Each structure stands twice: as structure tokens, then as C-alpha cells.
UniProtKB/TrEMBL annotation:
Topological relation to the membrane, as annotated: Single-pass type II membrane protein
Record's catalysed reaction(s): L-threonyl-[protein] + UDP-N-acetyl-alpha-D-galactosamine = a 3-O-[N-acetyl-alpha-D-galactosaminyl]-L-threonyl-[protein] + UDP + H(+); L-seryl-[protein] + UDP-N-acetyl-alpha-D-galactosamine = a 3-O-[N-acetyl-alpha-D-galactosaminyl]-L-seryl-[protein] + UDP + H(+)
Record lineage: Eukaryota, Metazoa, Ecdysozoa, Arthropoda, Hexapoda
Record bears the keyword Metal-binding: yes
One Pfam family named in its UniProt record: Ricin_B_lectin
Listed Gene3D superfamilies: 2.80.10.50, Spore Coat Polysaccharide Biosynthesis Protein SpsA, Chain A
Species whose genome carries this gene: Drosophila yakuba
Protein name: Polypeptide N-acetylgalactosaminyltransferase
Broad class of where this protein is predominantly found: Golgi
Subcellular location: Golgi apparatus membrane
Broad enzyme group: transferase
Length: 576
């Protein structure tokens, strides 16, 4: 969990004002004629404009000298940029600083043109203009940032300007969430003074990305809002397929496919439509990706067609402004980061809309391994957001989340107006959502037991314990004194005989007991609890789970009913 110094967040009032009024371009007709815009001509024009004419340093006003004999136009077509193995001390330091400040390789970004080209391997299906309505609505693009790197922010904005039909972009609204990096002050305003579509808005204090997004929406005027993170790159043809879905049905909320921009080399990895994922979540209220489920695949003739998604990742989506307002935009009681994506996803589905991922639309995002900026110390921001979410939208299912956090809900503030919103909108129940929109989700109440798994040997205070595993990565499972706080001691025994947490299962292949992605094939992941002897019996090996005398290791041994170290109790056990 990121932690840092305190900064004041008091109340939900959002300050801020436009530092620079954009010229109103709304009435200027599109460059290519009033009626059906000639998309192909537009595309070629944009392509030509994309060719880097200037050195990256001039583009970005950021002067860093490339290493001697470095490639001419690094990063073009989304290619990886690799720094030389031998670097001067000075350069090494600059590279390290970039990583420290941003949690991605800023040095490499600074070497790449802010107008770099990207690959365009779209399916022919997507390039067929006849698929899209000709009269698409305009969108404002809202980009919130807190201490974003210069070239990365510029590349985000230029990728929108360079690769969207001009007449479909109203304004690009940059919302500065109280950054303190100097390049985001005057320098940013001066740079974008030459771009009438770009408007900069600044918060008067650190609001967090959720209230920053609300602030951006308050300044928007176009019929559609499109949100992007501040370290994205839009590809050719990204926008039309999104706007098309909203033009056909204004309660459809749409997300592009989010491609990975490598945090080290800035390589753009284009995900083909066969590999599209949809969003889900687990009972820790963490977002997760899943392959398109069978039931959804069957609804389509082509993998390029938009697919329903139970949830969105959060950062990249388009929504009809009026529909967004009707849903009460975001809960302004959410701080800094997290949970707002599930809030918007749940209420979209529960209150009459649909949420889709559009495989023809691709936008890249720099995924990083840690959060680079300051959060709030002393407050578990993410938990507070998640409890608000659960209190308002999850009905009786909220108990499963609370169990995971040891029922320690902390102070989540007042949610009465959010509950009223849900009532006024006559939204459907969370059970309806789970049954109809996310039937794949494993529900703890459907299992044989859920909660801690406690060993009765050596004093009976030792529990099965493991940190969350990464999918497809084996992780050792161990023991720890029982703490009754859920977390790493929260387990479910499924009716199929799995001991699992979310998508990870207890797995024994003859050596260590590990956590591994659930495969549903019983075998090494098949366990039975023998109620009378309290033993946990393993399928393929026939052995029983036990703990060592030192209590800090798991053992698999020949079953012996008289050994208390082989006896376990399972919380919420229901033998029926
Ligand atoms: O206090 C803050 N103020 C901000 O303006 C903290 C962050 N921000 C900005 C920040 O500069 C960035 O542009 O908010 C954006 C998101 O923060 P990131 O990029 O540090 O986090 P992330 O990419 O992990 O964020 C994902 O989850 C967030 C949960 O609140 C948001 O929904 C992000 O938009 C979301 N990003 C994506 O969906 C991109 C794909 C990642 C995945 C999966
Ligand atoms: Mn991000």
C-alpha cells in the first residue's frame, strides 16, 4: 500500500478554475466537408502529420542528449527503446531519477518523439467505415494527472489530437490534481497555448483522481465524455468505434482495449482481438481481467464486435454525459484512488445501462509496478472507498467483503445521498447483477466453508496463511498465528473440493503445498474435509495436511487420526 505524507482533504467541495480559456472551436466545421467526412483522406492526412519532422527534443522542449550513436528516431511504430549497457555515471543517475519519480522509465520516454507513430494492425472488420454511423457525437477528453512526466503527458494529448477526427473532439481538458512538479506549471500552459482545443484546469488542493474527474466533467460541454489516464497513447481509429456505440444507445458505456506500454522500454504491445479480456472483480473488491466467457463469445459472429464486460478497469472509457449525470457521476466521497471503477460498473448495469469493451478501439497505457505519488498517511483510502461502494451497491453481499477485511470497516463517512440516488433511479439488486451479468464469480456463501482454517495442534492458534498469489505463478503456502483479520487467512472450501481464495487454489504435487490458479480439474487441487476426524485429506496423494512442531511449516503426511496436528476447524462450515 502506498503511503506518504499528509495533505489536507477536507470535504467534497471542489475548487479550481480555468487558467486558460480555450478558444471555442465548436462552430468550426470539420476540415473535410459538412456531410459524410472522408475518413480515409482524414486518416492519410493524419498519418502524414504523424511523421516526425522535428527532433524529439524540440517537440518536447525537454533537452536530454541521446547517448552517442543512438538510433535515429527511437520508439517509432511503438518499438522498444533499449538503453546501452554502458552508461556514464551522469546518465545512470538520470535514468534512476526518472524511475524514482514516476515508477516508469522517464528517461526513455524523453528520448521518444511525443508524436511517435504506432502500429495499426486493426482487423479489416474494424476499418470498414460503413460499420460506424456518420453522424457521431463530439466528445470532450478529460485527462486528470498528479505529477505526471512531461513527455508522457504530452504524448497522451498529442496521440488524441493526431489520431482522432478533428470534428469529433470538443476540448481536451487537462485536470491538474495539485501537482508540484515545476514542468506542470507555466511550462505546460505555455506549451498548450498554441493548441486551442486544450484547456488546463487546476484543483486548489489535492482532490484525488475521482474528484478531479468530477471537476473535469463540470467543465465539459460536449455530449460525450471520454476519460484517459495521463500516460496513454491512442491508436489510429480508436475513437469512432467508441462514439458509434454511444450514438446508437446513450446508456452504453464503452471502454477501448487497453494495450500495454512497457514501463521500461515504452514498447507498445498491440493485443489482437482474439486476446481481448473483460473485467471482473474479487471479494476483496479488486479489479481483475478474464478471457471473454463462453456465453458471451456465443453472442457474436466476429471477435471484433463489442463484448459485455461486468466491470471496467476505470481509467479509459467514454460515456454519454447525460447518462453519466443521471447515474450521479462518481461518489465524491471517494479519495485519491480506487474503487470508483467498480462503483461506475455496478451502477451502469444495475441502473439500466450496459458496459462494453470495444475490440476495434485500442489505447495503450503504461502499467507500473508501484504507485509513485503520495497517498494519505494514517487512513486506508482504498478501504474507505470500497466500504462506501459496498454499503451503497452490494446489498447482503457486502458481508463477504467485510469478512475479508476482518469486519474492520473503519470510518466510511455518510452514504445516505448515494443510497437515495440508487432508490430514486430504481436500480436492480446486486443479486440480479451477479446472476445475470457476472455468473462466473464464485460466491463465498455457495461454498462448504469460508473464513479461517485453524489447526488444532500445539495450542490451536495456528492458521493456514498465504499472501495473494499472482495467477499462474506457484506460491508457497504457510502458517501464521491466527489473527481473525481475514486477508491472507481467508479461505473457501468449494463444493468441488477446492481450498481457494478468489482464483487461486491450494495445490499439492508431491513437494510443497502451493497456491496456484484454480483449474477445476480436481487432481492436485482436490481436498476433502472429514468432519468426524477433522482431517483435510488430499485427493491424488491420499495424504493429510498437518503443521510442523515449530508451527511455521505445512506438512503432508500419512493420515493418522490420533495426531492433533492433522486436525483443522473451518470457519462457517456447513455440511449440508
Ligand atoms: O491523487 C491522484 N490524482 C490523480 O489525478 C492520483 C492519481 N491521479 C491520476 C494519475 O495521474 C493517473 O492519470 O489518476 C490516474 C490514475 O492513476 P494511476 O495511473 O497511478 O493508477 P492506475 O493506472 O493503476 O489506475 C487504475 O485504477 C484507478 C483506480 O482508481 C483508476 O480507475 C485509473 O484510471 C485506472 N487506470 C486504468 O484503468 C488503466 C488500465 C489499468 C488497469 C487495469
Ligand atoms: Mn494509469
Amino acid at each position: 500500500e502506498p503511503a506518504g505524507e499528509d495533505f489536507g482533504i477536507n470535504g467534497n467541495v471542489i475548487g479550481g478554475g480555468a487558467q486558460k480559456q480555450a478558444h471555442d472551436e465548436a462552430d468550426i466545421p470539420p476540415t473535410v466537408g459538412k456531410h459524410k467526412p472522408d475518413l480515409e483522406a482524414e486518416r492519410l492526412r493524419k498519418k502524414a502529420a504523424d511523421q516526425p519532422k522535428k527532433k524529439p527534443q524540440e517537440d518536447s522542449k525537454k533537452v536530454i542528449d541521446p547517448p552517442a550513436n543512438f538510433e535515429e528516431n527511437p520508439g517509432e511504430l511503438g518499438k522498444p527503446v533499449r538503453l546501452p549497457k554502458e552508461m556514464s555515471e551522469e546518465m545512470k543517475k538520470a535514468v534512476d531519477d526518472g524511475w524514482t519519480k514516476n515508477a516508469f522509465n522517464q528517461y526513455v520516454s524523453d528520448l521518444i518523439s511525443v508524436h511517435r507513430t504506432l502500429p495499426d494492425p486493426r482487423d479489416a472488420w474494424c476499418k470498414d467505415e460503413a460499420r460506424y454511423l456518420t453522424n457521431l457525437p463530439k466528445t470532450d477528453v478529460i485527462i486528470c494527472f498528479h505529477n505526471e512526466a512531461w513527455t508522457v503527458l504530452l504524448r497522451t494529448v498529442h496521440s488524441v489530437l493526431d489520431r482522432s477526427p478533428e470534428h469529433l473532439i470538443g476540448k481536451i481538458i487537462l485536470v491538474d490534481d495539485y501537482s508540484d512538479m515545476p514542468h506542470l506549471k507555466r511550462q505546460l500552459e505555455d506549451y498548450f497555448a498554441a493548441y486551442p482545443k486544450v484547456q488546463i484546469i487546476r484543483g486548489q488542493k489535492r482532490e484525488g483522481l475521482i474528484r478531479a474527474r468530477i471537476l473535469g466533467a463540470n467543465h465539459a460541454k460536449s455530449p460525450v465524455l471520454t476519460y484517459l489516464d495521463s500516460h496513454c497513447e491512442c491508436t489510429e481509429g480508436w475513437l469512432e468505434p467508441l462514439l458509434d456505440r454511444i450514438a446508437r444507445n446513450s446508456s452504453t458505456v464503452v471502454c477501448p482495449v487497453i494495450d500495454v506500454i512497457n514501463d521500461e522500454t515504452l514498447e507498445y504491445h498491440y493485443r489482437d482481438s482474439g486476446g481481448v479480456n473483460v473485467g471482473g472483480f474479487d471479494w476483496n473488491l479488486q479489479f481483475s481481467w478474464h478471457p471473454v466467457p463462453e456465453r458471451e463469445r456465443k453472442r457474436h459472429n466476429s471477435t471484433a464486435e463489442p463484448v459485455y464486460s461486468p466491470t471496467m478497469a476505470g481509467g479509459l472509457f467514454s460515456i454519454d454525459r447525460e447518462f453519466f449525470d443521471r447515474l450521479g457521476t462518481y461518489d465524491s466521497g471517494f479519495d485519491i484512488w480506487g474503487g470508483e471503477n467498480l462503483e461506475l460498473s455496478f451502477k451502469t448495469w444495475m441502473c439500466g445501462g450496459t458496459l462494453e469493451i470495444v475490440p476495434c478501439s485500442h489505447v495503450g497505457h503504461i502499467f507500473r509496478k508501484r504507485s509513485p505519488y503520495k497517498w494519505r498517511s494514517g487512513v486506508n483510502v482504498l478501504k474507505k472507498n470500497s466500504v462506501r461502494l459496498a454499503e451503497v451497491w452490494m446489498d447482503e453481499y457486502s458481508q463477504y467483503y467485510y469478512h475479508r477485511i476482518g469486519n474492520d470497516k473503519g470510518d466510511w463517512g455518510d452514504v445516505s445521498d448515494r443510497r437515495k440516488l440508487r432508490n430514486d433511479l430504481k436500480c436492480k439488486s446486486f443479486k440480479w447483477y451477479l446472476d445475470n451479468i457476472y455468473p462466473e464469480l464464485f460466491i463465498p456463501g455457495d461454498s462448504v466453508a469460508h473464513g479461517e482454517i485453524r489447526n488444532l495442534g500445539y495450542g490451536g492458534r495456528t492458521c493456514l496463511d498465504a499472501p495473494a498469489g499472482k495467477k499462474h505463478q506457484k506460491k508457497a503456502v504457510g502458517t501464521y498465528p491466527c489473527h481473525r483479520q481475514g486477508g491472507n487467512q481467508y479461505w473457501m472450501l468449494s463444493k468441488a473440493g477446492e481450498i481457494r481464495r478468489d482464483d487461486s487454489c491450494l495445490d499439492y504435487a508431491g513437494k510443497d503445498v502451493t497456491l496456484f490458479g484454480c483449474h477445476g480439474g480436481k487432481g492436485n487441487q482436490f481436498w476433502t474435509y472429514r468432519e468426524n476426524t477433522k482431517q483435510l485429506h488430499h485427493g491424488t496423494s491420499g495424504k493429510c495436511l498437518a503443521i510442523s512442531e515449530s508451527k511455521d511449516k505445512l506438512l503432508m503426511e500419512e493420515c493418522n487420526q490420533s495426531l492433533s496436528r492433522q486436525q483443522w476447524t473451518l470457519e462457517n462450515y456447513d455440511s449440508s
